Each structure stands twice: as C-alpha cells, then as structure tokens.
Amino acid sequence: MDHIYGRLFRLQEADQPLWRRACSWVLAGVLLAACGAWIFYAGRQVATAYRSLPAGVQMPIGRLAACLAGLQFFFHAARFWTQQLFHQGPMRDLALTPGSAAQILRVGLRLNLRDARLPWLAASVLYLAPWLWHECITFGVTPGWTWMLPLAWPLALILSTVLVLVGRAMVEACALAACMLGSALGVGGLAPRYPLLGRMLLGLHATLSIGGLAGIILAVASVFLAPGERASDLQRIGAAILEVAAEPSHPLHPLLRWSPSTFWFDAYAHTINGPYGQATFALLGCAATILAALGLTALCLPAGFSAEARLGFSGVSRDPKPAQAADAPTRAFDPDAENGPVEGWLLRKLGRMARATLRLMTRNHEAGSLDRHFLRTLYYAPVSLAAGWLALHLVPGAVDFVCRIWWQPLLPRDYRILGEGAAAVAILIVYVTRMSIWGRLTGAGLQGPQRSAAAPTGWALLAGQRAAPALSRGDLRIPLNELYAVGYSDAVLLPTLYALLWSFLLAGLALAEAVAVGLDPAASLLAAAIVAVVVPQTVFLIALLGIQSYCKNYRRTWTALILQTCAFAVVFISLISGILIVVAYLVQHVLDENRPVWIAYVGSVNLVLVFDVAVYMLARLVYVRRRFDAELPAVR
Amino acid sequence: MVDLNPAGRTGDPIIDVVNVTKCYEGGKAALTEAHMRLHRGELVALVGPNGAGKSTLLKCMAGLVRPQEGSITVAGKDRFRDHLAIRTFTAYLPDQPNMFVHFRGIEHLQMIGDLYGVELSERNRRIESFARLFDLDEILEKRIATYSNGQYKKLALAATFLTNARIYLLDEPETGGIDPPASAALMQILRMLRDRKDVTIVWATQIVEMAEKLCDRVAIVDDGRVQAFGTMNELRARYQAPGADLGRLFGLVTGKDKQQLISEVLESMAHNAEEAPRRIAR
To answer: Given this model, what pLDDT does residue B213 score?
Structure first.
C-alpha cells in the first residue's frame, strides 16, 4: 500500500452522468441565490432602519457611514494596488526590462478576474438595490411618473449597478493615486524609505475602523436620547460626532462635506428625488474625484513607477537572501538542535514523528519552536492586563448606556458582573488573537516565510496547515499528512494535544491576571476552566475538518464537491448545534435547581467528550473509505 | 535590435565588475571583492557550489541588487546610474522566473516583445519560431497557471531570447524541469549566439561538461569570490593540471574534491545494505 496519502487522492477527474451534473448546477445555483437573498435582505433591513431615523439626521448619519465604508474600501484597495503594482514577483522582474512606466502600468492594470473582486461587486449591487428601490418608489408616486412603479425593481438593480461601479471607480482611482504618490515620495512602492510608516498606517487603519464604527453607533444612539439624558461621556461623544456631521458651521464639517465618500452618498441620495442642484454638485464631485486621482497618478507616474522605485535599491532587507549568505538563526534553547524543554518532553512522550507535526503547527520549523510559542504567550501578559483593566472600567457604563436606549427590559441589575465578564473575555481575547493583530504589525515589513516565522500564532494551530508562500502558482496549501508521513490520528490528535497544553498555560495566565485586576476569583476560575477545554475542543474540530477537507476526491466535479461540502457542513453544524443545545439545557437545569456549578461543568465535558469520540470515529470512517475508494483502481 | 555600441568591436570590454562586495542584511557577505572583466561577444560560464554567490553576481550585473562596494560598468555605462540605457540591450533570466500566471503564454511573449520594442511582425515571427523550438505551440493559448514546471521554464526561456538582447544574463537556464529536446535547443541557441561574436552571455550553470564545451571562458566562484577566471587552457596552466576537465579544476580551485568522500559514502552504503536486512529480521 502506498503511504503517500496526498497522491492517493489526486486521481484524474472522471466524467459524471449528465443528471448528476445538472443536479449539481441547480443546487449550486440555489446556494448562490440563497447567499444573494441574504445580502439583499440585509440591505433591505438596514435601509428600513435608515429610513426610520428622523429626517434631519438621515443625511449626516448616512454620510458618516459612507465615509467609514469608503475608508475601509480605500485601505483595502491601496493594499491591493501596492501588491499588484510593486510587490508581486512578475512586476519586480519587469523592472529589468526597458518598458516605459506607462507600458508597465498597463501590464499591472491587467487584472486577474479573481483579483477583480467580482463577488464583492455583486454583493454590493444586491445590498444597495433595496435602497434604490425605495428612491424609485418615492419618485414613481409623483404625477406623470407612475409608469415607473412596476419597473421599480429592474430600475433599482440597474441604478445600483451604476452606483456601485461609480463608487468602485472612485475608490480604485484614489487608491492607485495614493500608491503612486507614496512611491514618488519614496515612502511607498517596493522599498519604502520608512518601513515604520507602513506599520503605523496599519495601526491607523485599525483605529479608524474600530473608532469609526463606535462613533457611528454612538451618533445613532444620541439621536434617541432625551436632552436630559445626555450625561455620560460616551453620550456626549455621540452627540458631538452627530453635530460635526449635521452642522455646516462646525469647523470640522468641511472635512466630511468634501470627502469623496460624501459626494458618492449625496449622488445616491439626491439624484432621483432631488434637490437636483445638490445631485449635480455631488455627481460633479464624483467625476472630479476620479479625474483628480487619475491626474495625480499620471503626474506621479514617472517618479513613482520608475525602475528605481520598482527595483527597491534602498530596501536591502527585501533582497532575496541565498541560504549560505544568511547566518544561522540563533536558537533560544538548545544550540545542538535537540529541543526546548517542552518540545523535548513531548517528543519523549510521543516519539520523533510528532516533532515535524508539532513544529508545523507553530509555523516555525526551527528547534525549540514550541517552547518559543509558549514563551511568546507570556510576552502579552502586560497587554492583556491592560485590556482587562480597561474592559472592567468601560464595559459597565457602555452596556448601561446601550441597554437604556434599545433594550430597556434587558437592563442588567448588576453592572459589575458584566464588567468582570468583559474583562475576563478581554484578557483571553488578547491571548487568542494576539498575533493576528500584532503579527501583522510586527511582521508587516516581511514577506513569505520570514513573515510566517515572525508571527507564529495560535491561529496556525487552528488551521493545521502551512501558510501559503508569498509567490505561488496554484494552491500550495499543504495538509499535515501530505508533508509528513503522519497518520490520521496524529494529524488530528497531536494538534489537539498541543492546544490542550497551550490552553492550560493560557488559562493559568489569564486566571492570574484576572485575580490581579481584581475580578472575582471563583468566577475567574470557572472561566479559565471553560477556556481550558473550549480551545482544544475547537482545535480538535478544526483539525478534523481540515483533514477531511483535504481528502479531495478529484474524480468528482467541482460542483459535486461543493454540494458534498455543503451537505457535510449542514450535518456538522446540526451536530454542533445539537450538542450546544444539550449543554445549554444542562447548565440551565443545574442553575435552576441551585446545584453546584461544577456539576454542569463536568456534565458538559462528558457530553462533549462522547460527541468528540463519535465524530472522530465517523470522520475516520469517511477518511478511510475515501482512501480505499481512491486506491481501488490502482489495486485492480 | 538596439545598437549597443557602434564603435565597439568583438573583444572590447563590455562588462566590468570591479571589487564588488554585497552583504545581505544580517548575513555574511554573498560577494567579496568580486572582480572580472567580460569582453564583447564571449560566452562566460559561472560555476561554483550552491550558495557561492553566482546568482548574486548575476543579479548585480542585471541591476537587481546593488552592491555595497565596488562598481559595475556595462558598455562603459555605470550599471546603477544609466539603468534605462543598459536594460534596453540586456536580458536577465532569473533562476526562478516570475510570470503573470493569469496571462496566456502568448500574451506573456507578446508583452515581453513589446517592452523590448520588437517590431510587430518580427515579434510574431519570433514567437512562432520559439514556440516551435520549445514545443510550446500547443499550449501558448492556455493560461500560464496551467503550465507544468518545465513548460513554465521553457516559456521564460522563450521570452528571454525573444528580446534579441546583446547581453544575456542567464541563471541556470537548463534547470527547472525542461525536457531533453528543449535542453538541446537551449545549448544550440547558446552555441549559435556565441558564434555570432556580437552577443555576450554570462551563464551560471552547474553542468560543467557543457560549460567546458561551449564557453570561451570560465569563472569559478566560491565563497563569494571569483576564485579563478580564464579559458580552460589558462586555468589548466595556472593550476598545473594539464588535460584536466572543468570538474577536476573546480575541485582544485575550491578545494572541494569529493572523490575520496564519495568512495567513503558508497562503501558505507554497501555495508548498510548488507546489515539492514539482518537488523530488520531481529
């Protein structure tokens, strides 16, 4: 029997019967339609909520939201164009050809359809259609235009498409211009003069996203307050933000008024139902934005897209480094490449085959990487302490504020409990997501393997797979059991075991911090005990799913694979939902009966363990079955 | 074709690498005072062990990597100051070429032809010829993403020679999974370009036999330095090894003659082959 599992599943696609293909296509269509319908429904709900705002604040709130969305799209587009025009390998190779900047730009602008983000365009069109439909209906009831009413939906879709395309053109043009300007000034392009600036921009992006969203929520909330209620700091902030957006005399108002997103939103709001003077102004603003961005791009093109800017002469750290030119990385633990204490202990227990698997999970193949992963968890203790303290002091006020506005019946009796809960969650969130944010900041200047090495993260554990290299052709994700000759049980259970150890460390740290910031020790202990089992449980399920998803049967059509995946997902989600309901019922029952909490805990763990064993055996059965299915033709 | 230097003649100095040192950040020097002068119309092989600095030397010549010390002059022009002028007649094939995988093969070749200013009909004629030469004609209309490794490398080779440059910097063009006919075609192209005497080729390679047969001169690079540079006869005379082939000279220059090691390894393998079944049986 061939033990190279990966190859076993790489059988050629065979022809499928017509009826099966037809069914697949129909069901795939249904699935897509369901996604579309969901987006459409979300758009309708948001549009209805927007219409329910008082007339005077609709435009300011809408402009604020458009600005926030525009900013998000702009940042993403700028990152995309930086990659597309400067960082991707082929563009770097083209810097050595005698092509002019305009020629190379034309090449860079030829997008792959996958890069064109077409699904986002389609989703945006569907999301905005209900908004435009309302405008069409409002316009259609005016005398002489009633013929429009039956055509409201098709018109809304057409107008929505136009609106999305205009918005997209504005965002892309602005992002392109920003990229080119940054490159011309030497702070962008392939080798930015100040790499720290890139990291600061990432931080700015995160701050603007979170702060902007919070600002809009506060601004909306301030609308529903009686004047006497505007007492707390948060309430005052919301009112102040709304004032900036609504009062033309406010000194900061021009910033919002003259932003491209505001032009776009005004074009949406005024083009159909007027006032048409404002609509003309907004449309001219959109056109002027695009033209100005294109003009700036053309102006900066010679300097921003010169060979020097694209070759990265000053960016020595980005030079490709041959293996022997680099010094051997310093090893924090055993210079003889044996292992760190944790890794060594695990290997003694599990055998040498575990080493590759375990190291792979930390995205770092050097000796002692497991220990380093553990150690880095400790680095974040101060951040998590600070987050816990902030949550403890901010959350009760925020929850009180939100509940008083929207959910009066749900007003909690004891805000202290909420604050403590939030503090505990904040402490854990810092640990669990620590590298997904910090890794991006700390590894922002690195590429490919260096970047992966810079940010060994807890999420790598969950993914159970190697990060895709920066330059790739095709799908280079490699599952554990294709890289190493590990069996099914190793590939699923080793990540779970490691997660178990890691989560014990995590829970212990979090517990100590919770007590340090002044939370209730008993509640903190319970929270830590829950986290200690939830994290490995999650890893177990994801490792299981990960391995399962790689057992692709290449003999099937992709539509059949989609359907198979959907069916699997439905079964899996049903099972998970079922087990969660049972656990919730058990916990509720224990609380109702005033029994000790540990009964609910132990009972839940037992339930989940039984479920785990059953799911593991089932998944293993499917895996083995697929392997034999795949091997059968070769055996014959 | 771009006129490189109307006054230049075959044998005139074309590339001057003077005391070039390149250190990668945080690492040891990849090149240390590398020094060599190439003449117009010659085919020079760069041979050396992995990580010796061949690729870095080629990248410096191509202008992709700027050295910390020393200078590189191409056709009398500073490599890093007159970049635009030099790249009109220089083509560089990296060891791992990058291409837009969503382009079709023919689109890539057309793009390269256009960037090098090849006239349209001439470009199409060359594309057709190279497609036939490298057996690419049937896949040129397909997306590059669907190519195998060998086809990918062959397309990169075709794109490099399509430029009709006067200086070719080739980093191990014979590797990357190209098939024997394509390999033979590549050698034939190198031979013909060498015989034209107006094209300079710097060829980093690991195939010492072919390098010995084809090249006018050979540079042996090791540990970031050009340890030896000259014709085969000059090298034999310098190292007092009459009749030695390039492999032997390579060992003499780098001190890495592995004949003894190979014997030891083979002996150990034979011993292990006898012992292993007995151990497994136990």
So the answer is: 86
Check which CATH number belongs to the domain holding B64 and give it: 3.40.50.300
Give the end of a domain, one of A550, A573, A595.
A550
User: How far is A323 from chain B, CA to nearest CA, in Å?
Assistant: 6
- Please report whether residue B159 resides in a domain: no
The minimal CB distance from B117 to the residues A90, A98, A471 is found for A98
Q: Do A92 and B98 touch (CB under 8 A)?
A: yes
Task: Output A271 or A424, whichever has higher pLDDT.
Answer: A271
Residues of B with CB below 8 A from A103's CB?
114-115
Q: Residue ranges of chain B with pLDDT lower than 70?
A: 1-11, 25-28, 256-258, 276-282
Binary contact (B98, A319; C-beta < 8 A): no
- Which band of pLDDT confidence, cut at 50, 70 and 90, is reported for residue A349? confident
Contacts of A470 in chain B (CB under 8 A): none
Do A303 and A354 belong to one domain? Answer: no
Contact A94 B83 (CB under 8 A): no
Closest to A258 in 3D by CA, of A248, A269, A271, A268: A248
Tokens of residue B265, six digits:
């390894």
- Nearest by CB to residue B145, choosing from A103, A327, A474, is A474
The mean pLDDT of chain A is 73
Task: Give the per-residue pLDDT at B93.
Answer: 92
Please provide residue A35's backbone torsions phi and psi, each rounded to the nearest 5 degrees: -60, -45
**Record: contact B25-A316, CB cut-off 8 A:** yes
Question: Residue A109's closest chain B neighbor by CA?
Answer: B100
pLDDT in tens, A214-231: 888 888 877 776 665 545
Chain A positions touching B116 (Cβ under 8 A) are: 97-99
A372 in the same domain as A268: no
Q: Per CB distance under 8 Å, which residues of A are interface residues toward B? A: 88-90, 92-99, 103-104, 107, 110, 112-115, 307-308, 311, 313, 316-317, 319-327, 471, 473-474
3-state SS, residue B69? strand
**Nearest residue on chain B to A85, judged by CA atoms?**
B100
Let me know if residue A147 belongs to a domain.
yes
Q: Count A/B contacts: CB-CB distance under 8 Å.
A: 96
Q: Read off the DSSP letter of residue A334.
A: -
Closest in A99, A107, A317 to B25, CB measured: A317
A148 shares a domain with A76: yes
- Tally of CB atoms within 10 A around B38: 23
Nearest CA distance, B224 vs chain A (angstrom)? 9
Tell me the C-alpha distance between A51 and A130, whole Å: 12
A427 & A300 share domain? no
Number of domains in chain A: 2
Residue B189 lies in a domain: no
Least confident of A109-123, A245-259, B230-244: A109-123
Is A555 contained in some domain?
no
Distance (Å) from the alpha carbon of A322 to chain B's nearest alpha carbon = 6
Minimum distance, in Å, between the CA of residue B233 and any CA atom of chain A: 31
Domain containing B51 equals 13-89+167-179+198-281
Last residue of a domain, one of A500, A520, A550: A550
Contacts of B112 in chain A (CB under 8 A): 97
DSSP A484-523: S---HHHHHHHHHHHHHHHHHHHHHHHHHHHHHHT--HHH
Q: Which are the contacts of A523, defined by CB distance < 8 A and separation ≥ 6?
A: A420, A421, A424
* Any domain includes A42: no
Domain enclosing residue A57, as ranges: 53-316
Evaluate whether ipTM surpasses 0.90: no
Check whether residue A390 and residue A272 sit in a common domain.
no
The string over A154-172, giving b where at least 16 C-beta atoms fall within 10 Å of a residue's C-beta and e elsewhere, is ebbbebbbebbebbbbbbb
Q: How would DSSP label each residue in B188-223?
A: HHHHHHHHHSS-EEEEE-S-HHHHHHH-SEEEEEET
Query: Would you state the pLDDT for residue B275?
Result: 73
Is residue A157 domain-resident? yes
User: pLDDT per residue over A125-168, tens digit each?
Assistant: 999 999 999 888 888 888 887 887 888 888 999 999 999 999 99
Dihedral angle of Cα B240, B242, B243, B245, to the nearest 10 degrees: 10
A488 lies in the same domain as A366: yes
